[in-house]
Write a structure and sequence with these properties.
four-stranded antiparallel sheet, seven-stranded mixed sheet, mainly beta, globular
């Protein structure tokens, strides 16, 4: 079984930046497409960004495009989410997810992912 553990700074001021990390167990990390999702209070789970197995292809939700960079280090089995120009609207629990289907691309729906982290709270103060 694949285990994913998110970590990162939990509180940041509006206009600031943060980087979240997702450490993955197992030997097959480099074959997985990976993604980030978030869930704000009272809201549905929202897609944020995805990256293909090699890191060569990325895709971003319109709400974060231009402010967010998803990346991965396959040698370290780690996924990253760099977020800049943060606003209170970015406040949410952030989840990393892994797709083990060996697809060629960047899955963008919750149903395409097989493994999920426990989530980490990000709060952006005004």
């Amino acid at each position: 079984q694949v285990q994913l553990v998110e970590s990162g700074v939990g509180l940041v001021q509006a206009g600031g930046s943060l980087r979240l990390s997702c450490a993955a167990s197992g030997r097959a990390f480099s074959s997985y497409a990976m993604g980030w999702f978030r869930q704000a209070p009272g809201k549905e789970l929202e897609f944020v960004a995805a990256i293909n197995w090699s890191g060569a292809v990325t895709y971003y939700a319109g709400s974060v495009k231009g402010r967010v960079t998803i990346s991965r280090d396959n040698a370290k089995n780690t996924l990253y989410l760099q977020m800049n120009s943060l606003t209170p609207a970015d406040t949410a629990v952030y989840y990393c997810a892994a797709d083990n289907s060996l697809r060629m691309g960047t899955p963008r729906t919750v149903y395409e992912y097989d493994y999920w982290g426990q989530g980490t709270q990000v709060t952006v103060s005004s």
